[in-house]
Design a protein that fits this description.
220 residues; five-stranded antiparallel β-sheet; M1 Pyruvate Kinase, Domain 3; 2 domains; mainly beta; 1 helix
Length: 220
């Protein structure tokens, strides 16, 4: 399978600096994409542009990405333009499994402090895989990530009594939407919040990270 989507369009009017073009996703939504390492290929000009402030910028939407063209060379009407969007699930993705005994999470606070992945990357998701089910009602622990001292926007997984059964269940975290990129020296921490202490239960927190160094090497 390809590690990126290739989407084509042929503008009916010339595209000048600061004009926009809208590329519709072939399937799914913006969460499929790495949102880094994009390329714009202008066939008639024999020109391939890497995403940058002075080449093109992007705004990812629910079903399409809007590209603002920043290059000085106008694209003539009728010229095929292709965008290459790397897929987040394909390039440089790592799953970091973190075992959690829920009964040991007695209060709000860090479960993991100061983990340095050691590469430039981004947080893609956080989920919980139930190993030992929870049988005592009305218990809860919400897990979220920080980069340094800043909370990642989204990526909160709520492990409640009702959700943490049966064995093998995967509790999905909320979508990660912002504040999720880190440098090679940044530290990640995992917090528990809204804790009503569990009496039993265990599982794996599945932290999905993307290595942007690998992605950029692939896209070069």
């Amino acid at each position: 399978m390809s590690s990126f989507d290739i989407i084509e369009l042929t503008p009916s009017a010339a595209v000048d600096t600061d004009d926009t073009m809208t590329f519709t996703y072939p399937s799914g939504n913006a969460s499929r994409y790495a949102q880094s390492g994009e390329k714009l290929i202008v066939s008639g000009l024999m020109n391939t542009l890497d995403q940058a402030a002075d080449t093109f910028t992007l705004v990812y939407g629910a079903s399409s990405v809007v590209v603002t063209y920043k290059d000085d060379t106008s694209i003539p009407a009728g010229t095929k333009v292709t965008i290459q969007l790397p897929l987040s699930e394909k390039v440089g993705v790592h799953i970091v499994p973190l075992y959690v005994n829920l009964a040991e999470i007695a209060a709000n606070g860090d479960v993991l402090t100061g983990y340095v992945p050691g590469f430039n990357g981004k947080v893609l998701s956080l989920d919980f895989n139930v190993i030992a089910p929870v049988t005592t009602a009305s218990k809860r622990a919400d897990f979220n990530l920080e980069i340094g001292t800043t909370d990642v926007t989204g990526g909160v997984v709520s492990v409640t009594s009702a959700a943490a059964t049966p064995q093998g269940t995967v509790i999905a975290g909320s979508a990660v939407t912002a504040a999720n990129e880190f440098t090679a020296t940044d530290a990640l921490s995992l917090e528990a919040a809204s804790v009503t202490a569990h009496a039993e239960g265990s599982g794996w927190l599945l932290l999905k990270l993307q290595n942007l160094d690998t992605l950029n090497e692939y896209s070069a």
